[in-house]
Design brief:
The structure is a homodimer of 291-residue chains. In chain A, 38% of the residues lie in helices and 15% in strands. Chain A is α/β, with parallel strands linked by helices and 291 residues long. In chain A, helix 1 runs parallel beside helix 10, helix 2 crosses helix 10 and helix 6 packs across helix 10. The longest helix of chain A is centred in the last third of the chain and has 21 residues. The first copy, chain A, is globular, with a radius of gyration of 19 Å. Chains A and B meet through helix 5, helix 7 and strand 6 of A and helix 5, helix 7 and strand 6 of B.
Chain lengths: 291, 291
């Protein structure tokens, strides 16, 4: 069994981006990071993005509207960033407060700056195999983990557990694409699937994104399968100081005995997301400069 | 075995639309039908759309640019239709000549008038389960055939053969949606799938859209499965006056012996496409009037 080390792969990508950005003379790429309110997890995520951007040499512009901002005011704020020529990418941290229609806010980001890839146009571009699009950070991270672990999906059966817009659907469309590394046969299962363990056992590559701790047990896995665990779940654990431990969607200790390659949680898909956001920002910079 | 009669179901939908449109006082829905050049198949398709629109009471506006039109001129022509308030839907007949970038032309249709559903935004809306979107006519027709044949995909395994943007990918996303009639478990196979017959045999609902005559044989079908045949292939046949016969992607005579329900070719999915185009046009009319 080989561990797929997301920390190491993310570090490599960040180093590559740093080298690339260092060759840019003149204006450097810039990402606008918008965080509504003071949710502690959001504060920490945005800080991590700001820090990684700085490490690479990407400028970041932090915008902190109050939690009371109206939908229209937030839409107007995004329109300002759309029209600001010095901004290449726009990220709005989720979750947003209840008065905000997230779908419309994401759709309102100019598609050429939508580096988080959650706008409707960029989701459509995945289905169209359109390489100008931005793939959202978790599915992009999964594909990068597979590529850098020499997993070619061609002729393989990829089973995705979970049909979310953030992970399951885009990663299924990516695995289906007619491009090197992809060309997989893809099944999407979910909470309503009647014979999920049997279907999972057919997987050459199993992507678990259902949000249930240790849902994928050893009996659901074909020996030699590649396992990508997208879940990050809190499980009560009195032996831990904070009262919980983090668990993925896969029973790692048992499944790792038979998998050929597997991502750990934490340290698998998680660290990839910020790296892919930065990669998208550099791509947006180049595409905007070329057009 | 029950035959799924696409001609009858399309006739029913057209009659329902006619009744609906007859209640509209004032301006009636209007579709712009754009056909580039004089390709005989395109001439016949556009004529059929015009005739069906007239039958329902939808106004149509036929626009016939020459085969030599440039990409920029066609884009400008579409922009005129986008800006014409009396036009609710815009259809551009495929195929277009080589100098035209079809992807960008479809993307250039205003999403609220994209009744053929081939623009990037409307494809993205399918993934988002966004009911304001327009679903392209073939996948929409397949879902309507299933719904009107009392096939509920919930808990069922749907296997789609073919991953095209026109059929395979959108119908897979539709079958996955969290809405009544959908909620299927979905597998997409294609020419690069290594064990396609085995996967097909797991299907409760099998959708064949691979473009190969009689590709799906009896041994690839689970007894009792529902079969949707999207293929329309010409097969040489000297006994026919025109020298060929039309064949679907399914070996109808053998597969119909074990299927619970099956579409014929012709007379299955084919007649549904024009009906769904008209349904989308009436929907566009209502959405544009409401906004």
């Amino acid at each position: 069994m080989k561990l797929i080390d997301g920390n190491q792969i993310a570090t490599d990508i960040i180093a590559e981006l740093k080298a690339e950005v260092s060759t840019i003379s003149g204006r450097k790429p810039c990402i606008a990071l918008i965080r509504v309110g003071e949710d502690p997890a959001s504060v920490s995520y945005v800080r991590k993005k700001e820090k990684t951007a700085a490490e690479i040499g990407i400028k970041s512009q932090i915008i902190l509207p109050p939690i009371t901002i109206s939908h229209e005011e937030l839409a107007a704020l995004i329109e300002e960033q759309n029209n600001d020529d010095t901004v290449d990418g726009i990220l709005i941290q989720s979750p947003m407060p209840k008065q905000i229609n997230e779908l419309l806010i994401f759709r309102g980001i100019s598609p050429d700056k939508d580096v988080d890839g959650l706008g409707t146009m960029n989701i459509g571009k995945i289905a169209q195999d359109d390489e100008t699009g931005f793939i959202s950070c978790t599915p992009a991270g999964i594909m990068a983990l597979l590529a850098r672990s020499d997993v070619d999906l061609k002729g393989k059966h990829v089973v995705v557990i979970g049909r979310s817009l953030l992970v399951g659907k885009p990663v299924a469309l990516l695995a289906l694409q007619k491009k090197a590394g992809a060309n997989g046969t893809v099944t999407v299962c979910h909470s309503g699937t009647s014979n999920l363990p049997e279907i999972a056992r057919h997987a050459d590559v199993l992507i678990a994104a259902i949000g249930r701790p240790e849902f994928v047990t050893k009996d659901m896995v074909k020996p030699g399968a590649v396992i990508i665990d997208v879940g990050i779940n809190r499980v009560d654990d009195d032996t831990k100081k904070r009262g919980y431990r983090l668990a993925g969607d896969v029973d790692f200790s048992a499944v790792s005995e038979i998998a050929s390659q597997i991502t750990p949680v934490p340290g698998g898909v998680g660290p990839m997301t910020v790296a892919m956001l930065m990669k998208n920002t550099v791509k947006a910079y180049h595409q905007r400069n070329a057009s």
